[in-house]
Specification:
By secondary structure, the protein is an alpha+beta fold. The protein has one domain. 28% of the residues lie in helices and 21% in strands. The chain has helices at residues 14-24, 60-71, 80-83; strands at 4-8, 28-32, 43-47, 50-54. A four-stranded mixed β-sheet has the order 2-1-3-4, with helices on one face. The chain starts with a strand and ends in a 13-residue tail after the last helix.
């Protein structure tokens, strides 16, 4: 079963994340409504069975970590560049 990555369609530069995920990984990308946590591109996907949301995923280090974690089959930990970008208050919530 392919991993589904939710990307906010209203945030700036969301199309860059969509292009990278579609070309570099085999995940299915779903554009979702605004999550109301926008301070840059917002991405959400399940880690260890719990939905996690990340904001400001726009620099090279965050994008590389996103590609790395979506390619891995065992997704129990969050890579260090994405840890600082996690939205703790929105953790566990389904997309709007």
């Amino acid at each position: 079963m392919a991993l589904t990555v939710n990307v906010c369609r209203k945030c700036k530069n969301h199309d860059c994340i969509v292009d990278i995920l579609r070309t570099r990984t085999d995940v299915s990308v779903e554009l979702v409504r605004c999550q109301k946590i926008c301070h840059g591109p917002v991405v959400g996907f399940p880690i260890a069975g719990k939905m996690e949301w990340f904001e400001k995923v726009e620099r090279l280090r965050e994008l590389a970590a996103l590609v790395r974690i979506t390619c891995k089959r065992n997704q129990d930990s969050i890579p260090k560049p994405l840890r600082k970008r996690r939205v703790k208050k929105h953790s566990g919530r389904a997309p709007r």
